[in-house]
Amino acid sequence: MITALLLSGGMDSVAVAWWKRPQVALTVDYGQNAAQAEKTAAAQVCRELGIEHHVIQVDCRSLGAGDMSGSAANPVAQTTEWWPYRNQLLVTLACMRAVSCGVNMLYLGTVQGDGSRHRDGLPEFFQRMDGLVAFQEGGLRVQAPAIRFTTAQLIRQTGVPPGLLAWSHSCHRGNVACGDCPGCSKHFSTYDELGSQYRSG
Questions:
Q1: How far is Cα 96 from Cα 77, in angstroms, rounded to an integer?
Q2: Does position 200 have pLDDT exceeding 60, yes or no?
Q3: Fewer CB within 10 Å, N side or C side of the chain?
Q4: What is the pLDDT of residue 115?
Q5: Cross-referenced InterPro entries, in alphabetical order (predicted)?
């Protein structure tokens, strides 16, 4: 079986890359503010783990909203980082490239708690995406293997080295961590929960 990972370069997907060791990683530049830092982080992780890396570039900035696009939050959003149907878009774009690479399974780095902020982080969302992709040609399946873990639990469970995790980029607003967005808050609180082993790594 050929596996791929949707690798954003954030803590969760970096930990899943270490854990699952897919043959292929797919990073999507869809016009988000932090695209360059995410691509840099993902590329370094792939170099260290020997994973074939593909970057998909599709400019969807005009459709964005909130922190990730640098525009006003969508009025229906519960959080400032919600970009309308972003996860659905990312899974679709990743599948389009993955199926042409002969991939059978696409892993996603979503963790427990992502669904508390938006519905496309819920297990039910990924079950539906898996069913939709499996219904179509190509024999591709979609799985979120870390969906039952928090980020800290995932990192401990997989044993991802601190040095590899240090490459991760979580900021939603730019290529340099702003320290104030939901992505940065999650990043720093995860390090606090993990303790000195990872802070000194």
A1: 27
A2: no
A3: N
A4: 60
A5: QueC, Rossmann-like_a/b/a_fold
Strands 105-107 and 24-29, bridge-based pairing: unpaired
Length, in residues, of the chain: 201
Domain ranges of the chain: 3-199
pTM over 0.85: yes
Q: 117-157 pLDDT, tens per residue?
A: 778 889 999 999 999 999 999 999 999 999 999 999 999 99
In CATH terms, the fold of domain 3-199 is: Rossmann fold (3.40.50)
Q: Which residues pair with 5 in a beta bridge?
A: 25, 107
pLDDT of residue 199: 64
Which phi and psi angles does 192 have, rounded to 5°? -60, -40
- Residue 53, beta-bridge partner list: 25
Reduced to 3 states (helix: H, G, I; strand: E, B; else coil), residue 169 is: coil
